[in-house]
Design a protein that fits this description.
The chain is an alpha/beta fold and 288 residues long. The protein has one domain: Rossmann fold. The strands form three sheets. It has a seven-stranded mixed sheet with strand order 2-1-3-4-11-10-9, sandwiched between helices. A three-stranded antiparallel sheet has the order 6-7-12, with no helix packed on it. A hairpin with a 2-residue loop joins β10 and β11. α1 packs antiparallel against α7. The longest helix has 25 residues. The protein is globular, with a radius of gyration of 21 Å. The two termini are 20 Å apart. The C terminus is likely disordered.
Length: 288
Amino acid sequence: MKLRPFRFAAVCAIFAVAMLVADARAARVGILSNLHASETAADFAAQVPGHTFTAVDTLAGVPSLASLTSSFDVLLIFEDGTYPGATTVGNVVAAFANTGRAVVLGTFYEQDRSDGPPVNSPHSWGLLETIDPNTTDGEGTPYAPRTLNIASLVAHPLTAGITSLFSGRFAGGNQAKLGTIVVGTWTQPNARGLSDPAIAYRVTGSACVIHLASAPSDPTIGVAGMEFGGDFHRLWGNAFDFGAAGCIVSVGSPGVGLNPAAIPTLNAWGLALTILLIAGATVVRRRR
């Protein structure tokens, strides 16, 4: 059957929108850590569909900004044990975020934060600390069970499909900064007796930094059903989806966070769709 001109234009528009959604969801994720980066990349590759995951051992060396921006759309940063290279890593990751690409943080990021527990001899994450969502609570990861407070969840792309989450030892110990959007908290308070953010993000200029206060390496260092459980992989998948989409949620939704760096891309797609529709309408008029 031959498509009429206006139907052809509509099909083109639908196809373009579908391609936009696909591009926004598929991300090349770089996993930067001084330990368990490879195991975490392998676990996510098996459990989190729609993205590719590549381990980057930051103990072996700090990648350049050019190598990160050419290879990855989203970065995941965590550590297991503090190390002097954290400051340099934090500086280059902050520069990556300021290009408009999303960064995701996971436990034990807080151990090397400059306000982390003195017992850890923190080195700081440098400029990344100026745009990250949370400070520590002064003590960091409590090494005690944490369960997600379901009543605290805000309807948001980061919380889509999340009905439960827990960690046996490797979660919590943070406090949200002013301007941070918290869309879920742990049931247990932090060391200061305040709300402990489990799922949060912050947009600063072009930078979007998401913090999931749980260890992304839980499956490599713990046992399912004991050390971690619930919608663990769904939550990390949501973070990579949200980051790949430019940290944008629809206007009027709770927790709106528009990343200005994504606006030119959206405008370009909007212009392309408009041209398609106008072209289709023009063809219809000429055939009458």
